[in-house]
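Quick one: examine this chain and its backbone structure tokens and tell me how the chain folds. Here goes:
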Amino acid sequence: MFNDYTWDVVEKESECLAQRFQAVSRNIANANTPGYARHNVSFEDQLREVMESDKKLHMTVTDAAHIPSHPLRIRDVEAADTRIVDERYRLDQNNVDPEREMAALAETRMMYSSFMRIATSKYSMLKSVIAGR
């Protein structure tokens, strides 16, 4: 939006956290569904790799047909929604642990709130600059 690194990270993080909110709420809604396998959304490793990419030597992509070995930019990071099928929590083959899901929901809410505070702060700074204060 502003062609700003911090803003791009906040935007991507909030987008991926919204997907995690959806997965966790879907897990909680299906806590009593026999045979339901919970979903897990992960993106932090990809985002960290992109943010630390200046510290590593990567293959150079010189053509659009080349396949990159990793996400090259923040906007290339995509949340991976994984269905966890190899663990069981109950006898009816459902693996949703309500306590784990509530903890994941609380953690996601805290992360989302902190990134929204960063976005609000960044927006306030831009507003001050535009107003000439």
